[in-house]
Amino acid sequence: MAALSQSHHLHSNCFSRLPTPKSKPLRLSSTRVRMSLQETGPSLAVVGVTGAVGQEFLSVLSDRDFPFRSIKLLASKRSAGKSVSFQNHSFTVEELTADSFNGIDIALFSAGGSISKEFGPIAVEKGAIVVDNSSAFRMVEGVPLVIPEVNPDAMEGIKVGMGRGALIANPNCSTIICLMAATPLHRHAKVKRMVVSTYQAASGAGAAAMHELELQTREVLEGKPPTCNIFKQQYAFNLFSHNAPVLENGYNEEEMKMVKETRKIWNDMDVKVTATCIRVPVMRAHAESVNLQFEKPLDEDTAREILKNAPGIVVIDDRSSNHFPTPLEVSNKDGVAVGRIRRDLSQDGNHGLDIFVCGDQVRKGAALNAVQIAEMLL
Predict the structure, then answer these.
(1) Rounded-to-10 torsion of CA 48, 51, 57, 62
(2) Any idea which residues are catalytic in this one (predicted)?
(3) Distance (Å, rounded) from C-alpha 6 to C-alpha 22?
(4) Cα distance between residue 47 and residue 41, in whole Å
(5) How do beta strands 83-86 and 89-92 pair?
(6) What is the pLDDT of residue 342?
(7) How far apart are CA 212 and CA 341, in angstroms?
(8) How far is it, in rounded angstroms, from Cα 123 to Cα 107?
(9) Backbone angles phi and psi of 198, in degrees to 5
(10) What gap in Å lies between CA 213 and CA 233, rounded to an integer?
(11) Mean pLDDT score, 103-108
(12) What is the distance between the alpha carbons of residues 261 and 238, in angstroms, rounded to a whole number?
């Protein structure tokens, strides 16, 4: 997480330019002195706590004063025994086993798909409600795929204390960031077709990728050959197609997640979605260019007002000063920023819009969304 904190330190002077939404303030990572221990709160387990998203889970739980009566920090055997600081207390990381979920109410998973597939059902069987950040269960029928601001009704009836376990999936980071902005407009005018081009940061590939980007930048500037352990090609001062496997149809898995997850979250199998996903040498926070075609007319001024009043959205759309969303301005922030709101001139009338969206992949694109789901379980 060194790269995360360094990025926050280097760019904190930019944060003051990001306006605050009316619905709720954006939140920075912070350390609280007191614990959020409550006798009536749920018992928590954080799986994959030593990873980038696992660490962000702890930050978000602290920032939002999430109530809990106990917390168990779980990771692989390799990480077991490590000490982790949380709310000014030191916790020992425990090895993840089948017995880890005895007495657990809510389990936040971010340890990869294979771990989720193995231990998620075990946790559910023991009565825990699992909020899984991997892709393992997203498209499984009957498993809610949830963005709290978008489709909270998908997890209706699932609550702590209901006497049984359940599984809820966190969508892919790029899907979350896109749909946070597109959904308020979709509700107003119904999206018929959406074309998305993503500019995805190193954070999406984990802490190791962030460290490698930092290392490569130094190496290239010093005239040395770049270290390429995480990606097969130079990342610093370069960009390339997303590293997810390419499928027979020519799309990669990241792009198909956008297609399939949007349809499931919107409960609309007819909406047409296409995506091109690109890795860019940005440390943290994804950007996306989104083109929307609507069934009903929607002019840009109305769209701007809709977005200004949408929960979790910040509009940064200053044409006179050419100031629009940037990854730096949303890094370590809860809100998703939207700008470049303009009519699509290639479409007749007011049936098309272009928007530019930026959101912190580690935060709203992963940990924050999962914790917001957990809050809805209480």
Answers:
(1) 120
(2) 173, 286
(3) 29
(4) 19
(5) antiparallel
(6) 98
(7) 34
(8) 8
(9) -105, 150
(10) 11
(11) 97
(12) 29
Tokens coding 268: 């609309």
Of 143, 132, 140, 206, the C-alpha closest to 172 is: 132
Residues 373, 155 contacting (CB under 8 angstroms) = yes
Find the domain containing 181 and state its range. 175-362
Q: Tell which wins on pLDDT, 87 or 236.
A: 236
Same-domain check for residues 273 and 332: yes
Residue 249 neighbours by CB under 8 Å, 6+ apart: none
Q: How far apart are CA 133 and CA 114, in angstroms?
A: 12
Strand order, beta sheet including 272-279:
240-241, 272-279, 191-200, 286-294, 352-359, 336-343, 313-315
Q: Which residue has the tokens 């290239």?
A: 220
- The vertex-111 CA angle with 106 and 113, nearest 5°, equals 100
125-175: pLDDT as tens digits: 999 999 999 999 999 999 999 999 999 999 999 999 998 999 999 999 999
Number of domains in the chain: 2
3-state helix, strand, coil in the chain (%, to 5): 35, 25, 45
* Torsion over CA: 6, 12, 14, 17 (sign): positive
CATH number, position 330? 3.30.360.10
Residues 134 and 67 in one domain: yes
Helices (H), the chain: 2-11, 52-63, 113-125, 173-189, 207-221, 253-266, 300-308, 327-330, 368-376
CATH number, residue 146: 3.40.50.720
- Summarised one tens digit per residue, pLDDT across range 258-281 is 999 999 999 999 999 999 999 999
The catalytic residues are 173, 286
Residue type for position 292: L
Same domain? 188 vs 327: yes
Nearest-10 Cα torsion for 249, 118, 374, 310: 0
**Cα torsion for 56, 58, 64, 67, to the nearest 10°?**
150
Whether residue 195 is found in the same domain as residue 112:
no
Please, what sign has the CA dihedral across residues 152, 116, 235, 243?
negative
Q: Is 151 helix (H, G, I), strand (E, B) or coil?
A: coil
